[in-house]
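Last lecture ended with a question: if I hand you only a sequence, what can you say about the shape of the protein? Today we answer it with a concrete record. The protein is Porin. Below, first the input exactly as provided, then the predicted structure, then a couple of comments.
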Amino acid sequence: MKRLVMLAVLCAFAFGMAATAASAADIKATGTYTFEAVWGDNSFDDDDQDSDFDVYQRLRTKFEFIANENLKGVLYTEVGTSTWGSTMHVGTDIDDLVTIKAGYIDFNWPGTQQNIKVGHFGVALPNAVGGSIILDDELPSAVITGPITDNVSYLLGWHRLDKSGAQNGTDDELDAVAMALPLNFDGVSVAPFILAAYAGDNYDANVTNSITWAGVSFELTMFDPFVFKADLNYGQADYENAEDQDGWYFATSAEYKGFDFMTPEAFFVYTTGDDNNVTYAGEDQMPLLAGDWAVGSFFFGGDWGIGAQSSIDADANWLGFWTLGVSLKDISFFEGLTHTVNVLYIQGTNDKDNFIAGDLTYLNEDDSLWELDLNSAYSIYDELTAYVELGWIAPDWDNDRNINDDEAWKVSTGLNYVF
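The predicted structure:
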């Protein structure tokens, strides 16, 4: 309760200061409040004893304290994700779920278009298909962006990934630097980037010495109404007391925007998997940091929802898969009502002799799944959307796993208020 009271006092203080000193800053509040009810089973086990029905909510509010068009401070709060009856029930508050999601200063250097952000805020590497699988999250950073020419811009960033107790009882850091060079011309955009993480001398060598990622995102619109996109990423980790790790990620998509009632899209994704003589799971896969990536809306995420049953989120821990799919997006025959249909085939790229007992998101070459989604959204108001998501996954596991091919399924419905 103390944290909730502190947050309320902070907001009240901020609004009070703005009211008494209007010249100091204008305040703009935006946010997303989401409520979701989910009935389903994403465990691939019909005999599990977990509840098949839950209700969730999450409240995100962003306050911008705007001094002028070139300077503002941002405070981004989050309440939840809360589970009705578990983290929220009779006789309790939800103060333990109140967090500061981001807080930072955002300004342009006087007389220029060079933008500087300092604080804790969201950072995403360039991406074109499904989001960044490497990094798209909030973290302590200092980032400078701006134009070089009319067609070329840049991004330079420094990020504090971790500071913790390490060898010999001392503290040391794991930091990263990022560089990107987005190129935008008529009908084509290309954005190469590099992200390099490095550890201090006393940082725990069992974790890492260094990790380097490099990649490029690509978008081709010159053949409108056809749009082609692609991402190519490579990552390599150097460990002091373990075998090194490295791997590739490739994704491409093609969509047609010539219809008024629908946008069809085909996509293909491939990530390298472990061979049969690795010393640990993930050795031949690209290392991950904190991505936010999905195709479809069930196995990999990509759903409207916020609850634990809304998706399986295989990419959260493991790569080692390929998938081929089709999405029919924004199908609309009535004003305010849209539908999306996803069909995916997913198969592992880890060697057929590899599997992890109890972990069905680590897929080998003999594991495959079919995913079918039907998602609908209705705009009650411009700011308020009701949605229904139906998801079904049929697996065909490697026989050596000795498990049943139980299906995963979900029925998800909710409200999303954006202001």
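Comments.
1. The first strand starts at residue 26 and ends at 41.
2. The two ends are 26 Å apart (CA to CA).
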